[in-house]
Specification:
The chain has 447 residues and is of the alpha/beta class. The chain folds into two domains: 327 residues, Rossmann fold (3-Layer(aba) Sandwich); 112 residues, GMP Synthetase, Chain A, domain 3 (2-Layer Sandwich). It is built from 13 helices and 21 strands. Helix 5 packs across helix 6, helix 8 packs across helix 9 and helix 10 packs across helix 13. The chain is globular and about 75 Å long. It starts with a helix and ends in a 5-residue tail after the last strand. Bound molecules: adenosine-5'-diphosphate and potassium ion. The site of potassium ion has 4 residues, from loops.
């Protein structure tokens, strides 16, 4: 279902006109109202009176996470504090939390883009949505909540965590939609199986998953385990929250629509900051086009992805591929750049392993080393009669040695790095407790 066809299917030329007009307005607005931007634009020699719109966008420099910290808490606001209707913070995955503010009009746009997103995810008015995104300062819970209400869904505001209660409500209230982090949806799928709750006991049809990188492996596990069609929802507090982009349920695997009438995307080279060609990987950069409380010019998200137009898509807006990782958590090992999601892609091609893994980087002398811990599947553990994977078990079972060897070889072939692979028993790696799951440990700077 398309929530707002007039905008979501607006011909591209019209969309450009709209973006151009909005961008000029937004630049004049921040120049007049935010001292930080006035100083910055003056230093760059940009003045709203001569700013030509999209073609001049690269002249605006970048806004970075440190600019939010330097202006903590309210220094980037463009309206008096009395006009701020709500405050949120980013979840602080990397460092101190970032404060963001919304006017009532901003909250209206937030609800609109989430309503579009949930409609694209398969939701239709009258359905029930179990919202397992965290409520509170994190934008996820409340962001999904108001968008779901706007679309006409019944919201079950359960928040993250509390797996017993989540499973109970899935059975008692029979919601059609689940919103959660992908790692938490995995937990719910796994717990259902462990507790012998059949898929027929619940009524889920769709899941909109986001807030952290995930891959086709996880999609498969969640889709099978919960009996849903799972789509990607992406967003970030600095720009709005969840619902900056969303995958259409019938176009799964082909990218997520960015609601570019409100959030103008660019992809730039992570070293030079220069725009890359359509479809090429780089750092995603967003400029807000309609924000009132905290308009942001060219925000350097640190998220690595690509953007492209899909002519066979149901909407005209640009699509983005999955987030490959953050440029700041990209691991550089012996000069080779890689993301933990590459390890996950390899795992998806292997039998007899669970989708859980952990990548640990450490340094011995001046040598970087990487270890990958991965769980043996529950089925194989049962077949071999094992609770955990000891050295004796490794020595005794050739299939375990073969598993370890083929995984290590695939990593070497695909990523170009030798990594030490350690097999663990099923269930030994940490699971999500309702929020995001950290799959990478970089111990190199701790020594
Ligand atoms: P924090 O930066 O503290 O995690 P946010 O809660 O604002 O704060 O999270 C935004 C970030 O979360 C994004 O920049 C991105 O790295 C990640 N993220 C959000 N949604 C997705 C998604 N669907 N896929 C991959 N990463 C995502
Ligand atoms: K996040």
């Amino acid at each position: 279902m398309v929530f707002n066809p007039e905008i979501e299917q607006l011909p591209l030329l019209k969309l450009r006109e709209l973006q151009n007009a909005r961008l000029k307005q937004q630049v004049a607005y921040v120049y007049a109202r935010v001292p930080f931007y006035k100083q910055k634009l003056d230093a760059l020699g940009v003045h709203p009176s001569s700013f030509k719109g999209l073609e001049d966008l690269p002249k605006l420099g970048f806004t970075k996470k440190t600019d939010f910290r330097d202006n903590y808490p309210f220094g980037l606001f463009a309206v008096p504090e009395s006009e701020i209707a709500r405050l949120h913070c980013s979840s602080g995955t990397t460092g101190k939390a970032t404060v963001v503010g919304y006017t009532a009009a901003d909250l209206g746009v937030f609800a609109e883009v989430v309503a579009r997103s949930l409609a694209a995810a398969g939701c239709r008015p009258g359905m029930k949505l179990q919202n397992a995104y965290g409520y509170g300062l994190f934008t996820g819970g409340l962001g999904i909540h108001y968008g779901a209400e706007k679309l006409g869904l019944t919201v079950i505001p359960v928040s993250g965590g509390g797996t017993d209660r989540q499973l109970q409500l899935l059975q008692d209230f029979q919601p059609e939609i689940l919103c959660a982090t992908p790692s938490y949806a995995q937990v719910l799928a796994e717990e259902m199986q462990r507790r012998g709750i059949s898929r027929e006991a619940i009524n889920l049809q769709y899941a909109a998953l986001g807030a952290e990188p995930w891959t086709e492996t996880i999609r498969q596990q969640v889709e099978t385990g919960l009996g849903v069609q799972a789509t990607n929802i992406y967003g970030l507090s600095e720009i709005m929250g969840p619902g900056v982009s969303q995958e259409d349920v019938n176009e799964r695997g082909t990218g997520s629509y960015i609601w570019e009438d409100h959030f103008y995307p660019e992809v730039v080279d992570k070293d030079t900051g220069e725009p890359v060609a359509e479809g090429e990987l780089g750092v995603l950069v967003f400029t807000t086009l309609t924000k009132k409380a905290m308009p942001i010019l060219r925000y350097w998200t640190n998220d690595i992805t690509n953007i492209y137009y899909d002519k066979s898509g149901s909407r005209t807006h640009v699509k983005m591929g999955p987030i490959r990782g953050r440029s700041d958590d990209m691991l550089i090992i012996r000069g080779v750049n890689f993301f933990h999601t590459q390890v996950e892609d390899i795992l998806s091609g292997l039998e007899h392993v669970s989708p859980y893994y952990q990548v640990i980087a450490s340094r011995r002398g001046s040598m970087d080393e990487v270890e990958v811990n991965v769980e043996v599947s529950q089925t194989l553990m049962r077949e071999l009669g094992l609770n955990t994977v000891t050295d004796e078990a490794m020595a005794q079972h050739e299939c375990l040695q073969a598993l370890q060897g083929s995984f290590a070889k695939k990593i070497k072939d695909n990523i170009g790095l030798s990594m030490k692979v350690t097999l663990l028993g099923f269930g030994e790696l940490p699971r999500s407790e309702g929020g995001k799951l950290n799959r990478v440990k970089d111990l190199r700077n701790l020594a």
